[in-house]
Amino acid sequence: MARKPSAKLATLALGGLAAAGLVFATGMSGSQAQQQRVQGACFAHDELQAGLARDYQERQSAYGRVGDEAIMEIYASEGGTWTLVMTSVTGESCIVAAGDGWEPAVINVGRGA
User: Fold this and answer.
1) What is the mean predicted confidence (pLDDT) over 93-109?
2) What is the pTM assigned to this prediction?
3) What residue range is the signal peptide (predicted)?
4) Cα–Cα distances in Å, from 43 out to 9, 21, 46?
5) What residues have CB less than 8 Å from 88, skipping those under 6 apart?
6) CB neighbours (10 Å) of residue 85?
7) Contacts of 3 (CB under 8 A, 6+ apart)
8) How far is CA 14 from the centre of its chain?
9) What region does 110 belong to: left with phi over 0, alpha with psi -120 to 50, or beta?
10) Dist CA 61 CA 55 (whole Å)
11) 3-state class (DSSP) for residue 7
């Protein structure tokens, strides 16, 4: 199932265009513009998680710590849509990227891996 545009992703895309404009208009660095773009696509963790489940049937499939300040989460659906989310210790979750064609990797652990 292809990902259909949503208000959340539209906010992310429009934020990206606005951030690009900020780079040229103000001389802001690319990393500052990226931070501005991401700030436009942030929600309470529970709200974002519920929206991904409702709109895309995505469930958390993996996560990892980013120091002591945040975690990165991958939400994916059986249909292959996916969303990469960064969640801070305050509970704010920001969409970092989203797309189609997610394939889970098989990781061998233990002896002989």
Assistant:
1) 89
2) 0.63
3) 1-25
4) 12, 23, 8
5) 69, 70
6) 26
7) 9, 56, 81, 98, 99, 100
8) 15
9) left
10) 16
11) helix
3-state percent breakdown (helix, strand, coil) of the chain, nearest 5: 35, 30, 35
Helix axes 7-26, 45-56, angle to 10 degrees: 120
For residues 64 and 62, give the distance between their C-alpha atoms in angstroms, rounded to a whole number.
7
Q: For the sheet containing 42-44, what is the strand order?
A: 42-44, 92-99, 82-88, 70-76, 59-66
What would the pLDDT profile of 32-79 be if each residue is shown by its tens digit? 444 444 445 899 999 999 999 999 999 999 999 999 999 999 999 999
Q: How far apart are the first and last CA of the chain?
A: 34
Domain ranges of the chain: 7-99
What are the C-alpha distances in Å from 1 to residues 67, 68, 101? 34, 36, 9
Residue 69: predicted pLDDT: 93
Tokens of 30: 């690319």
